[in-house]
Amino acid sequence: MYSRKQLQQLSLRVLEPRKFIQVVLGPRQVGKSTLIKQLLGSISVPYLHYSADNVAGVGNTWISQCWEAARVKMKLEHLPELILVIDEIQKIRQWSECVKKEWDSDSFHDIPLKVVLLGSSRVLLEHGLSESLAGRFERLVLPHWSFPEMRDAFGFSLEEYIFFGGYPGAASLIRDEDRWGDYLSGAIVDATIHKDILIDTTVSKPALMRQAFELASCYSGQQLALTKLIGQMQEAGNATTIASYLQLLDEAGLVCGLHKYAIDEARKRNSVPKFQVHNNGLKSIYCNATFQQAQMDRALWGRLFESALGAYLVSNACAGGYHVYYWRNAQSQEVDYVLERRGRVVAIEVKSNQEGWNDGLTAFKQTFRPHGAYVVGEGGIPAEDFLGMDISQLF
Predict the structure, then answer these.
(1) Residue from 186, 248, 167, 237 nearest 213 by CA
(2) Long-range contact pairs involving 146-154 (C-beta distance under 8 Å, separation at least 24)
(3) Residues 188, 127 share a domain
(4) Are residues 200 and 63 in the same domain?
(5) Structural domain boundaries, residue 177
């Protein structure tokens, strides 16, 4: 079984003396549960593993019951330490308050019970971590799979990664593209919207959210005003509603709307969005072309190529601690992606073929004097290298 690099990082943390709650974050189908299975099978520390998947909606007394079972096991078996793992923690109402109470109780009574929590990044980041559990946890962000990971684990070529994206559960299905598409639509898109977003968020028009997702995914890598997006929808909606839905879809690891880079924060927020999927497979299922047809269509392949690089950037943004934008000026000079991290700015231009030179990078450098400016693709950093690199090295 293939092991991601985060396994070693988490192993080192749980083998340390009890210090922090370990929180594993990431969107659906990136391997959070598999990572924990590998962890528990590779260390000798006793553990108890619970999943809230089958007890969704119950009160947080369930967490206390799991916690007490771990304490009893430690006491009866005279264990010097034990790991308590709770998966899908976000499905328990008011989970963070209960975790805080139990963790603080163990700290007061010097009980060396270690805790690992798993759940969606959207719910965990919004509810509890920064407030109830401040100072008590460490995050481990599990992003979508990179090209080197899909290549080494499943034999993906660069072209296959650009089209099919980085979902490990769907890797064995790519020779049957209808089946592959059904898997992404059901196991990822439907499951994320209905089991992650709608479970604790009031959405007045779920069908409208689904339409917004499909259209935004179809236009991934392209700029499109929300008013034009709304004009293509079958159900009525307004820009404020669609923007809020896109925010939820972004936090769930599906698709986002990138703002235009500007010094003024207000101009960033009020700009026309550039849509970007977090995993390029989500664009491909709506492009109305097979893998072979897409490669033959130069314009379509160029859009898929740019979207794949953008997907790698946005899916690693949380772990890398940077923000992703695009840039365009009044003269239609543009830069595909602009990264900002701790006051430093990096510009990235994507070139999928021998197209003419875009002077957007030159204009951007003259205007903003970024820390770095790079071309990815033809004449620059090879895509196969970029799609596996540590983006923080660019800063």
Answers:
(1) 248
(2) 146/312, 146/387, 146/388, 147/312, 147/383, 147/384, 147/387, 147/388, 148/387, 148/388, 149/2, 149/4, 149/388, 152/2, 153/2
(3) no
(4) no
(5) 147-394
Number of domains observed in the structure of the chain: 2
Of 107, 125, 141, the residue at which a domain comes to its end is: 141
Report d(CA 122, CA 125) in Å as an integer. 6
- Domain-ending residue, one of 93, 114, 141: 141
pLDDT surpassing 60 at residue 124? no
Handedness of CA 311, 312, 313, 314 (dihedral sign): positive
Interval 287-334: pLDDT, tens:
999 999 999 999 999 999 999 999 999 999 988 999 999 999 888 889
CA–CA dist 274, 30 (Å, integer): 24
| Cα separation, 303 vs 287, whole angstroms | 10
Are 252 and 328 contained in the same domain?
A: yes
Sheet with 372-377: list strands edge to edge. 323-328, 334-341, 344-351, 372-377
Looking at the fold, whether 123 and 205 belong to one and the same domain comes out as no
Phi, psi dihedrals of residue 137, rounded to the nearest 5° = -140, 160
Full DSSP string of 85-130: EEESGGGSTTHHHHHHHHHHHHHHTT--EEEEEEE-HHHHHHTTTT
**CA angle centred on 154, ends 151 and 155, rounded to 5°:** 50
Q: Supply the pTM of this predicted model.
A: 0.90
Residue type, 216: A
| AA letter at 343 | G
